[in-house]
Amino acid sequence: MWNRIPSWIRNKYLLALVVALVWLLFFDTHNFMQQWRIRRQLKELRIERDFYRHEILRDSTAIEELKGDPDALERFAREKYLMKKEGEDVYILVED
User: What DSSP line would sit under the chain, residue for residue?
Assistant: First the structure.
């Protein structure tokens, strides 16, 4: 029966290598699928990090502008918080 099996399949080193690869690809705690998921998650987190860095830079610029320009601060208060001066009326226009 052993004569019918090719010698390269009976090689104990090749068999050990195949078993080790199968173990690492499918059964190990850090298997191939787990590594793939982690890399995909890392890519998404890096994109999210870049988005938030851009938002922080934009907000920091807006804060500096509001600290230095009283007219910009007044415009911001009127637009965002609907603040008004004494005796003024505020009309909100909604676009369809």
Answer: -GGGS-HHHH-HHHHHHHHHHHIIIIISTT-HHHHHHHHHHHHHHHHHHHHHHHHHHHHHHHHHHHHH-HHHHHHHHHHHH----TT---------
* Structure token digits, residue 96: 């369809």
Q: How many CB atoms lie within 10 A of CB 73?
A: 13
pLDDT number for residue 41: 98
In terms of Cα–Cα distance, which of 63, 87, 89, 88 is closest to 76?
63
Mind listing the pLDDT tens digit for each residue in 32-42? 888 899 999 99
> What's the rounded Cα separation, in Å, for the pair 62 and 75?
12
